[in-house]
Design brief:
homodimer, DNA-binding, disordered C terminus
Chain lengths: 183, 183
Amino acid sequence: MSVIDHPDAKAFILHWGEMGTQWGVNRSVSQIHALLYLSDRALPADDIVEQLGLARSNVSTGLKELQGYGIVRRVHIEGERRDHFTAETDLWEMLTRIVAERKRREIDPTVALLAELSARLAKDDSAPRHVRERITRMHEFISTLGNWYEQVRGLPKPTLVTLMKLGGKVARFIPGAGKPSQK
Amino acid sequence: MSVIDHPDAKAFILHWGEMGTQWGVNRSVSQIHALLYLSDRALPADDIVEQLGLARSNVSTGLKELQGYGIVRRVHIEGERRDHFTAETDLWEMLTRIVAERKRREIDPTVALLAELSARLAKDDSAPRHVRERITRMHEFISTLGNWYEQVRGLPKPTLVTLMKLGGKVARFIPGAGKPSQK
DNA sequence: TGCAGTGTTCCGTTTTTACAGAAACAACCG
DNA sequence: CGGTTGTTTCTGTAAAAACGGAACACTGCA
């Protein structure tokens, strides 16, 4: 009955958990996410506890974390008192939300710091030229990436999909981007 | 004299180290990278040990890791016996190499697993439909992203920069991608 | 062949993080 | 009220990661 009972589903959940750890997300959190992603119905926390063998407290904080990313939401089930949870199943949506949140948590503060350092270095005669230049370049680079993301993120999903499928061929359509002659 | 002596350089290195930990890279490794990035000359391992206060063994493995990513390389200094190391200073190059390597290490194996699971599920009548469908969709999604990356990665750098600066406006140039009328 | 300089690998310790289980606390509702 | 559900916090423990130091390997030179 439970998703976890199917060996392939289980393999997916375990792998997803490991993936998480490699990207700085803790194993329990990503396992919970995988389980909800595979499930066709919203699950109460107790079911998650049972299927993944985690402590209730862990599941609670894990769910909160996932809701913080906006990829899991709490739903009310008719006639049920307990909260139930479902995962976002639109993968584009899932990805953009994760990226948006990580940007907010990690990139934005970094850009802020780099801005500060750049500003201070600009009027600091004692600073070695390379240090100033390299930090400034890093600041510009990350800012540019961030701005690009904010813009692309706003595009309608079908456009994103088209762009993605185009792959490297986008270059053809861009005036002044050179011929698409390269390998 | 040493880069680390400048407070802003030091702040950068420390922050970079923390950033690393959030993305699954260990602190020492990213600190070494930051130090080399800021340095205008190649450094021998001993200097890194001294400036960052790490053990020799750590620096050795850290440098190996960074070379594995292709963002640090060993250079020979005229008249010196010791190996010296420099970091990639072209940030585009740095980013694409990091992404390429993480894809190779983490995404590719994931896609391989998903392919296997999808294949098996396709002929497994006992598998719940949702599980089959969701795993297949995930497989397709990640494959598409991977293929997109491989293509974009091959574009010449100036083209990439142009595309990046265009931001969301790329959509305008794509026939059949809809009007760029959305927010 | 021995030795000094350099670099890597291994091993034990420390530090950090994740986790379960319990308990306190809060809401909600009959 | 008192039962059910949910969150938060705390404690101890276990697992994992990071790390330093020493042992080991290699090289070139005297």
